[in-house]
Write a structure and sequence with these properties.
alpha/beta; 5-stranded parallel beta sheet; 5 strands; globular
Length: about 220
């Protein structure tokens, strides 16, 4: 079954270019387009979409707010933010809003296609270490401390899951976590899956965001 994609960008020329790239793929189909966030949300009411390619700077409703509203809905499609500048406030805000990743608009087509497939399969396309750099830079915009609403959800985790979460938040891969804790990589993967389920998170990027919000990780990457 093809990956159903919606293109959201106020520049028609860019949408045309993306559409041509995606149309050449046997496993992808552009099912909708929108010129701003409001139109994107309207389209989702009548069109089934798996992945949204979302611009951030648009009239009426920008991509960040549109992402927030889309991701708050049940069975929401995955959102991939397209930004002009790497590691900027738009990428940060997009991740906070629930996007599964961000990419530059001038990314090579092969990387864009890989990212769409990764997001569709449930992975994030931003490394946790990159997310950490974003959060370090904009940490003043985050609530912090053990008293945040997010921190209460952490009580659902076992001590081992909490330990794994801290290492994910510090940017370690499953293999690196396995080596650190002397576990098999499959066991680490299972722990990560349980963490995502218990905390109702979409991917590892959201684990990093929650770790910052709850005060488990502070700016600079250290754990409390």
């Amino acid at each position: 079954m093809s990956i159903r994609v919606m293109l959201v960008d106020d520049q028609m020329l860019l949408r045309t270019g993306f559409r041509m790239v995606l149309a050449a793929q046997p496993d992808m189909e552009v099912v909708a387009e929108a010129g701003d966030g409001a139109e994107a949300i309207e389209n989702l009411r009548s069109t089934a979409v798996d992945v949204v390619l979302m611009d951030v700077r648009m009239p009426r409703l920008d991509g960040v707010e549109a992402t927030r509203r889309i991701c708050a809905a049940p069975d929401a499609p995955k959102v991939l933010i397209l930004t002009t500048f790497d590691l900027d406030e738009y990428a940060f805000s997009g991740l906070k809003a629930g996007a599964s990743g961000f990419m530059l608009k001038d990314v090579p087509p092969s990387e864009l296609l890989t990212a769409i497939r990764a997001v569709h399969s449930g992975d994030a396309v931003v490394a946790p270490s990159t997310t950490r750099r974003l959060l370090d830079r904009f940490s003043a915009m985050l609530p912090s401390g053990k008293g945040t609403p997010a921190s209460g959800a952490l009580e659902r985790l076992t001590s081992r899951e909490r330990e794994v979460m801290l290492l994910v938040a510090q940017g370690l891969s499953n293999g690196e976590i396995a080596a650190r804790l002397v576990l098999s990589e499959a066991t680490v993967k299972t722990h990560v899956g349980r963490i995502l389920t218990k905390l109702a998170l979409r991917d590892r990027v959201q684990v990093v965001v929650l770790a910052y919000e709850s005060g488990l990780v502070r700016a600079g990457g250290g754990a409390f």
